[in-house]
Amino acid sequence: AQSVTQLDSQVPVFEEAPVELRCNYSSSVSVYLFWYVQYPNQGLQLLLKYLSGSTLVKGINGFEAEFNKSQTSFHLRKPSVHISDTAEYFCAVSVPPAGRRALTFGSGTRLQVQP
Amino acid sequence: DVKVTQSSRYLVKRTGEKVFLECVQDMDHENMFWYRQDPGLGLRLIYFSYDVKMKEKGDIPEGYSVSREKKERFSLILESASTNQTSMYLCASRLTGVNTEAFFGQGTRLTVV
Asked: What is the pLDDT of residue A86?
């Protein structure tokens, strides 16, 4: 069975600093990977997704993620964060075959951007 | 704009009550899901449905049931609410396909007192 591990439950960072949120997955087959963001008291919205092709994926709000198959990682990065990036971030995986139709989510990382 | 709509943002119910959480999507997606979100535990799948009247248990189905009478609507039912079901509940929908994303509703924060 596949699983997703987000290594940091909380990441405090100062405004305009770079940030990396870490995600590792376990699967013996090819995977499709997603990052979602959840602002306070809201649902989840898609930041970016890796399906195939280039291992560097660009998403909304200046975020990007790099798929590393050998390290089974899909870390999320932003070169300069804003106060408005304060939110919870979830990594998720989808694994063929599609018998399990739901995405599997990590436990989330709370990004706290301080002025 | 694609949309998943949950009927309530906040609910307060008493222990033992039967609780209905409703979710509607307008994207003609085959698959719909109910997740529960608790601090430090991420999103845990309660039930999902891949077609009208079809359902499958997720990882934590105990104490819950679901209903899908129409393609666009998926209901989560707490047969007898308990305090340990106080949580954020998220509905999602998704096209069939391993490379498709899920779309989420705004969430329902349920408090059982």
From this structure: 97
Which 8-state DSSP code applies to residue A62?
Answer: G
DSSP state of B85: G
The whole-number pLDDT of residue B60 equals: 95
Q: Does residue B50 sit at the A interface (CB-CB below 8 Å)?
A: yes
Print the domain residue range for B39: 4-97
Judged against a pLDDT cut of 90, whether residue B80 lies above it is answered with yes
CB contact under 8 A, B104 and A97: no
Tally of domains in chain B: 1
Closest residue of A to B96, CA-based?
A101
Domains of chain A in sequence order: 3-114 (2.60.40.10)
Q: Is A4 helix (H, G, I), strand (E, B) or coil?
A: strand
B13 is a domain residue: yes
Rounded to an integer, the average pLDDT of B83-89 is 97
User: B104 to chain A nearest CA, in Å?
Assistant: 6
CATH number for the domain harbouring residue B12? 2.60.40.10
Mean pLDDT of all residues in B10-35: 96
Q: What is residue A41's predicted lDDT score, i.e. its pLDDT?
A: 83
Contacts of A28 (CB under 8 A, 6+ apart): none
Single-letter amino acid code for the residue at B69: E
Residues of chain A falling short of pLDDT 50? none
Asked if the structure places residue B9 within a domain, the reply is yes
Residue identified by tokens 């997606």 is B29
Q: Which chain A residues are Cβ-neighbours of B98 within 8 angstroms? A: 32, 94-98
Query: Of the candidates A96, A98, A105, which has its C-beta nearest B96's C-beta?
Result: A98
Number of residues in chain A:
115
